[in-house]
Design a protein that fits this description.
This protein is α+β, with helices and mostly antiparallel strands. The protein contains 14 helices and 22 strands. It has two domains: 120 residues, Uridine Diphospho-n-acetylenolpyruvylglucosamine Reductase, domain 3; 226 residues, Alpha-Beta Plaits (2-Layer Sandwich), CATH 3.30.70. 27% of the residues lie in helices and 24% in strands. It has an eight-stranded antiparallel sheet with strand order 17-13-15-14-20-21-19-22. Strands 6-7-11-9-10 form a five-stranded antiparallel sheet. A hairpin with a 5-residue loop joins strand 9 and strand 10. The protein binds flavin-adenine dinucleotide.
């Protein structure tokens, strides 16, 4: 079966098994495989010749609506969890920019949201998870039990074993609405100043015009948000304060042709987006458009055409975040190769062994696949390394092994744990082979 992840690059031929029994058989035969959830990582983290798909295991095992503790199988999506817990006054403690990810994928990538600077990553909120190891044994891991495996599996990209079930704490909400403040900022320095001043706000994210130059370099629209209280809703909204997000009705049915994504179309999009927003606006929005604006259109990745795209997501430590972001945006705007989607967020302190976040600024750029852009990303790598940063494995399809080694200083500890529990290297992905994570 031909398969790819969200970036539509690379495509490979793979065989998929689905049940735990088949998984155990494959492990006994000493096959090499990788777990896969919804395939929402952009690159090759969940690709291999043999894939175990967790999606068959999609039950919520237990949900206590008094305490907000939820236990579910690894193939459950965040969308399904929201549909059950929001009406009872609970929300995900951490959510990425799409709700179509599985709990297994959320743990394996230690996903971060717009609140990482306040609440950390997804794995901070775990009580425990069950992991199937290479010898077929199932172990329960938490920060106190099998803590070495816990620390390596949170953000460990499926390379320590297959996550079967997880239990975590939800966040109490009074309504399913967000009190949003939107601010337009003239350049990247103003954006960073605003992030610093507003760091006590729970959610923050900025869209950046990455083709703007000179005094406008990195002009942005910043979105800040807090969960709205009941007394902040209008009479109409108060009639149904915990309404769940609606299913998307629109879809991109075909791959866009190459010319649709020229520098000019990106420039025009960025211009319209920037000038389409007022200088400042306060509003009440549903959690759907606040957290998941891209989920409104199914298959939006086809916009990048058949060749696909990758997401270049880096983090630069906070002490040189301003300088680093200026350098990256200068390189991007000079290249003329813009990104429709350029998103800046603030991250809090790092956790776990190879989890992506570290205290600093993270920039995510959608970059179409073409040879010129690989050269651009190589140049961006040098800037990221110069400022002591690193790249997010869950978005990556091309990082060189050297970049991984330099960006993740705890990699040797991770490899020791992997070696101990997976001595025959049965959990491997195209990415782990490329990066030499053995
Ligand atoms: C539009 C969009 C926005 C996004 N925004 C964000 C964001 O804001 N923050 C963020 O952190 N990420 C973001 N992501 C990335 C996404 O959250 C992660 O890639 C997530 O891991 C995808 O989950 P998945 O179920 O699709 O897993 P997959 O893509 O299938 O796999 C991702 C990784 O998880 C491993 N894995 C999956 N299931 C299991 C399992 N059961 N056991 C062991 N390992 C497993 C795979 O081996 C692989 O290494 C975004 C992605 C998209 C498409």
């Amino acid at each position: 079966m031909k398969i790819s992840n969200w970036g539509l690059f690379p495509w490979i031929d793979a065989q998929t098994v689905s049940s735990k029994e088949e998984l155990i058989d494959q492990l006994k035969e000493k096959s090499t495989l990788i777990a896969r959830g919804m395939g929402r990582c952009y690159g090759d983290s969940s690709l291999n010749d043999l894939i175990w798909s967790a999606l068959q295991y999609s039950e919520i095992v237990e949900f206590d609506d008094r305490t907000g503790r939820v236990t579910c199988e690894a193939g459950v999506t965040l969308e399904k969890i929201l549909s059950v817990v929001v009406p009872k006054g609970w929300f995900l403690p951490v959510t990425p920019g799409t709700k179509y990810v599985s709990v297994g994928g959320a743990v394996a990538s230690d996903i971060h949201g717009k609140n990482h600077h306040n609440l950390g990553g997804f794995c901070q909120h775990l009580f425990w998870f069950k992991l199937m190891l290479a010898d077929g044994k199932i172990v329960t891991c938490s920060s106190t039990d099998n803590s070495d495996l816990f620390n390596a599996t949170c953000g460990g990209m499926g390379l320590t074993g297959c996550i079967l079930e997880a239990s975590f704490q939800l966040l109490k909400i009074e309504t399913s609405y967000i009190r949003q403040t939107q601010l337009k900022l003239p350049n990247i320095d103003a954006a960073i100043d605003a992030f610093e001043q507003m760091s006590a706000v729970t959610y923050s994210v900025a869209w950046i015009d990455c083709l703007a130059t000179g005094a406008n370099l990195g002009r942005s629209v910043l979105f800040l948000g807090e969960h709205a209280r009941l007394d902040e809703l209008s009479d109409r909204e108060r009639q149904e304060p915990l309404v769940v997000d609606v299913k998307p009705k629109r879809s991109i049915p075909f791959y866009f042709p190459k010319f649709a994504l020229s520098t000019w179309s990106v420039k025009l999009f960025n211009w319209v987006y920037y000038y389409g927003h007022p200088a400042k606006r306060e509003s009440l929005v549903h959690y759907g458009p606040f957290f998941y604006p891209l989920d409104k259109i199914l298959h939006w990745n086809r916009m990048y055409g058949r060749r696909g795209f990758t997401q270049y997501q880096c983090v630069i430590p906070k002490n040189c975040g301003r300088e680093g972001m200026n350098a990256i945006l200068k390189e991007l705007s000079q290249s003329g190769e813009g990104s429709f989607l350029a998103v800046l967020k603030l991250l809090g302190p790092e956790d776990f062994l190879i989890s992506f976040p570290m205290e600093g600024y993270t920039l995510a750029l959608d970059i179409p696949i073409k040879s010129k852009n690989f050269e651009l990303m190589n140049r961006l790598d040098q800037i990221v390394l110069r400022y002591g940063g690193r790249l997010y494995l869950s978005k990556d399809a091309r990082m060189p092994a050297e970049m991984m080694r330099k960006g993740y200083p705890k990699l040797p500890q991770f490899i020791d744990i992997k070696q101990k529990f997976d001595p025959n290297r049965q959990f491997e992905s195209l990415q782990s082979k490329r990066l030499g994570l053995q």
